[in-house]
Amino acid sequence: MKELEDYIIQRGTVKEGDVLKVDAFLNHQCDVGLFDRMGEEWARLFAGKRVDKILTIEASGIGIACVTARHFGSVPVVFAKKYQSINLDGEQYCTTIHSYTKQTDFHVIVGKRFLTPGEHVIIIDDFLANGCALNGLIEICEAAGVVIEGIGIAIEKGFQNGGRELRERGYDLQSLAIVESMDAATGAIEFR
Ligand code: 5GP
To answer: pLDDT digit of tens for each residue in the chain (192 aa)?
Structure first.
């Protein structure tokens, strides 16, 4: 999506440790007009698919998923909640995810009543790097018996392994911008 690539070039910064900072429009301040056009683009890319729900993960996925839901008939958005520790009472699906940016593990839960076996979902998230966050959400979908129709990512870092592995596993993964390389020293960013 050319517009998203332009936003990244104009307003993103490359940090040491292969981190792309896009808090001016995606991760802190939210550009709702951009989110709306991203949702429109995913609606085009996933056209013809049955989508009963959108699944995402807090925090940055929520805004994007909610605006996107408007392009899928205002289906409900369910977000996985993050906890440092949990008391499982059997009412939640739970998994552990490693955070790339924070270099720590955290637990995520989704209430069982919000995912019904046989439902069709798309997963939406802001970033794809090594795929830890998505693999956690996929695990929850498998436990819940829902069908994953597709995965929509705003920014994929194509030089990390998550995207390649998910495509090899057969998921319909639609990333709106794929960063092929970036350089913290020069600030240069190249797209696939
Ligand atoms: P993964 O789990 O695929 O390794 O990383 C994806 C998650 O880590 C995203 O949900 C996002 O929160 C965070 N993340 C990974 N890489 C970056 C990055 O370069 N910039 C930002 N802003 N977040 C990232």
So the answer is: 999 999 999 999 999 999 999 999 999 999 999 999 999 999 999 999 999 999 999 999 999 999 999 999 999 999 999 987 777 778 999 999 988 777 889 999 999 999 999 999 999 999 999 999 999 999 999 999 999 999 999 999 999 999 999 999 999 999 999 999 999 999 999 999
pTM score, two decimals? Answer: 0.96
Number of residues in the chain: 192
CA–CA gap between residue 141 and residue 112 (Å, rounded): 10
CATH for 89:
3.40.50.2020
Q: At what angle do helices 60-69 and 32-45 cross, to 10 degrees?
A: 60
Q: How far is the CA of 115 from the centre of ligand 1 (A)?
A: 24
- Measured in Å, residue 188 CA sits from the centre of ligand 1 at 19
Query: How many structural domains does the chain have?
Result: 1
127 within ligand 1 shell (Cβ under 6 A):
yes
Residue span of the structural domain in which 158 resides:
2-191
